[in-house]
Amino acid sequence: MSLIDCAIVWDPSIGPFSVFGFDIRYYSLCWVIGLVGAYYIVGKLYKKSGVSDELFDPLFMYCFAGIIIGARLGHCLFYQPEYYLSHPIEMLLPIKQTADGWVFSGYEGLASHGGVIGVITALLLYVRKTKLTMVWTLDNIAVAAPFFSAMVRIGNFMNSEIIGTETNLPWGVIFVQAGETQPHHPAQLYEAIAYFVIFLFGLLLYKKYKAKIGSGLFMGYCLFTIFTFRFFVEFIKENQVPFEDGMTLIMGQWLSIPLIIVGAYFMIKGIKKSA
Among 252, 257, 260, 275, which residue's Cα sits nearest to residue 111? Predict the structure, then answer.
C-alpha cells in the first residue's frame, strides 16, 4: 500500500449552508466561534474582577476592528506589498477585480502578527476611553486569545491554506483544493492543537495566579508560547509567498522573534512581581 493510499484526502465543501444566496464559509464560522468564545471568557474575567458591563461592552468592537484591520494590513504589507500597494481597494475591501469586473472575494489573506499589532493599537484607544490600564486589559484578553487563535487555524484547515510540507507520516493530508496530489503535514491542526493546550494551561495559570492579573504575566505567557510554537512550526510549512524561497528564516519567523522576546520579558517580570 502506498503512502497516498494511507493519506487523508481533504476536499471539504466551502461551507455548511447559504443565507440569501451567500455561502457561509467554514472559515468565517471558525472566526465567529473564536471571537464569541473569547468575548465570553474575557467577560467572565471582567466580572470576577468587579469591572462594570459599561466598561466591558465596548471591548468587543475595539478588538474586532483591531484584529481585522491589523491582520489584513499585515498580510498585504508583510507578504504582498507590491500587489496591494498598486491595488489599495482590494487591501481595504473584501472585493477583487477580475476580467468580469469587481467580485466579492472576502479577505483573502490575514496575518496573525498584523492582528497583534492591530489589537494593541485598538486597545490604546479603548483604555484611553475606559481609564483601565493597558497591561491589565491585555492580561485578561491573553487568557482567551489562544482559544481564538486555535479556531482561526481550524478555519485555515477548512480552507486548505497555510499547509505543511510533504510528509510520509500516516496522518499526512492531501489538500485537493490547494491542487496537491501528495500528502502534506496538516500544519494548521498542529497549531490548533498547540493553541488549545496553551489555552488550557493558561486557564490553570489564571486559577492559581489570578492576583497577578495586571502584572503582564498572562500577556507574556500568551505571546511567548504561541509565537515560539509558531516559529518552529514554520519549518514544516510551505512558503506562503515566492520571496520566502531560499530564506533561512521566513517572514513569519522574523515577525515572531520580537513577539517572543516581548513575551519572555513580561512573563519574567510578572513572575517576579509580588502578588
Answer: 252
Cell for 68?
481585522
What are the Cα distances from residue 22, in Å, to 96, 197, 235? 16, 34, 37
For residue 222 the three cell numbers come to 500568551
Residues in the chain: 275
Domain positions in the chain: 3-51+132-272
pTM: 0.87
Residue 244: HSE in the Cβ half-sphere, 13 Å Cα cutoff? 16
Best CA proximity match to 139, nearest among 256, 269, 42, 70:
42
pLDDT digit string (tens) for 215-255?
999 999 999 999 999 999 999 999 988 888 888 999 899 99
Beta bridge partners of 103: 96
Distance of CA 6 to the CA centre of its chain: 30
d(CA 205, CA 200): 9
**C-alpha dihedral over 132, 138, 144, 150, to 10 degrees?**
150
Strands 22-24 and 17-19: antiparallel
Count other Cβ atoms within 10 Å, centred on residue 24: 14
Element (H, E) at 23: strand 22-24
> Residue 265, CB half-sphere, CA atoms under 13 Å: how many?
6
DSSP secondary structure letters along 112-148: HHHHHHHHHHHHHHHHHHH---HHHHHHHHHHHHHHH
Residue 154 has pLDDT above 50, yes or no: yes
CA angle centred on 161, ends 246 and 195, rounded to 5°: 95
Q: Tell which residue, 159, 180, 156, 163, has the closest CA to residue 23.
A: 159
- List the beta bridge partners of residue 22: 19
Q: Please, what's the largest Cα pairwise distance for the chain?
A: 64
